[in-house]
Input
Amino acid sequence: MKKRLLDRLSDISRIHHRAAFVDVEHHIKKHQGSDAFLQLAGKRYSCRAFSNRAVSAAKIQKILEAGRLAPTAKNLQPVHVWVVSGDEALARLRTIHPCYDAPIVFMIGYDPAKAWVRAVDGKNGGEIDAAIVGTHMMLAATDVDLDSVWIGSFDPARIRELFPETAPYEMALLLPVGHASAHSEVSSLHGERVPFGEFVSEL
Output
């Protein structure tokens, strides 16, 4: 019987935990002062055409772990991730958004009741927490040579209807991940950035 995806990820996670932090200091010293992160950030782009090539469980695990390690307000960790990978679940999700035929879609949501709330005006920090988790995962996907795209245009009510297990979470984003197809193109807007002087102010 084929082992479920999350069961396989759990096996990989146990291996990673046994090996964790053995050579962290070595890697910190090795990369200190390098431009590796800036190169990674520059390499990432919004992929809107995916191939049907399978994504390894090891890479999925690394992406999920990057999200799990992401900071959240007061470390309350109100964020949850659903891995949509089965044919039937993907078909349901694609009635809400096509997700560019990605073989894996991470649905990332947050529970407002568990999130930090700013006392002065009642602002709920859950959506920001979810965005930080999503950003970690998006960059981790690039780091393991996968492509991704951040989707915010969807109907949250339809997601709750088709995926009732997501309640009581508020869905913040969909993150399709996979290998780009031969037809994938980088948007002409990708490299456009406001001038540094407009982006930063010194006080």
User: Anything to note?
Assistant: The mean pLDDT is 90. The longest helix spans residues 126-143. Residues 5-184 form a domain with the NADH Oxidase fold (CATH 3.40.109.10).
